[in-house]
């Protein structure tokens, strides 16, 4: 009897590492569950309370620099080649430049990351050309995309978080280096990728939906093939985008959708409308600001297919349903909220009354 028992113990010992590997991706209870919809619809958000501290640490907001007076001469009249923040006072302009240095520039380079030596007006460095365009983008988001960002808005820190290059940008996927002769065309499937939350879905839904305005649809709107029909490939690409959005915001599908009918807007949460505007905002940012900058970047900063790094949901959200857990930095940096209206011209002096 001893031999069988010993043999069983050895087999169990050999299974321990295997079981450990299988359970490594599981989350142990208890979990926090919040009901956000009608009973019976499965509209619940499940969160791991043990990850709350990690999420908070990734979304800490840096202390704001002391406020600067808006009075005095404008930066555009004092400094050369100021094209975006020329509506700020010299003091405000200097403060914003110092903040951007902390948010974006590598510590060992500081102002020299964008400026070539003592000639601050020089545009020789590509980083300055890109930064200028990004400032225009930030002001555009805060002025014209309130349907998505609300009054919280964004700053350079929302995406960069102290890094010269945001941690979550994307390039077009070139596909496998060597196509399998037996697998045929996998259409980007069966290669688990972080872009789609490690699912075996098409690994590049971004080119389809966040660069090109293709319909994001699973349920077809027509019985026969046509404009209202959703192909199997398009359906799987849609699932890939939804997996990306869920992971980027740290939420379940029911954060936006009513599980009774995912396609129907009736019964969906308000967040679905916010996400709808967010998708269109991302498309606009990629097409209007980032892709036109491709010639400005050196080859080392481009993707394997020569395209520029672009934004998706994770670029801003980084695991939180509201970037920086909903903390607004615009209250401390209203200079980035949008271009200020020019002050009214002084009224012309009335002519003196004629004497007798």
Structural class category = mainly alpha
Helix content: 25-40%
Spatial strand arrangement across the major sheet:
1-2
Rounded to the nearest angstrom, the radius of gyration is 26 Å
Count of individual helical segments: 11
Q: How far apart are the termini?
A: 133 Å
Mean pLDDT: 86
User: Sheet bearing the most strands, described?
Assistant: 2 strands, antiparallel
Q: Low-confidence parts, pLDDT < 50 over ≥5 residues?
A: none
Strand percentage lies at under 5%
Shape: globular
H/E element string? HEEHHHHHHHHHH
Report the strand count. 2
Structure, described:
- This protein has helices spanning 2-23, 52-58, 75-78, 90-103, 126-144, 146-149, 156-160, 205-211, 232-249, 270-290, 313-317; strands spanning 32-35, 44-47.
- The chain is mostly helical and 356 residues long.
- The chain is globular, with a radius of gyration of 26 Å.
- The chain has a two-stranded antiparallel ribbon.
In short:
This protein has helices spanning 2-23, 52-58, 75-78, 90-103, 126-144, 146-149, 156-160, 205-211, 232-249, 270-290, 313-317; strands spanning 32-35, 44-47. It is mostly helical and 356 residues long.
Which characteristics define this entry?
356 residues, mainly alpha, 2 strands
Helices, strands, pairings?
Blueprint: H1 2-23, E1 32-35, E2 44-47, H2 52-58, H3 75-78, H4 90-103, H5 126-144, H6 146-149, H7 156-160, H8 205-211, H9 232-249, H10 270-290, H11 313-317
Antiparallel strand pairs: 1-2
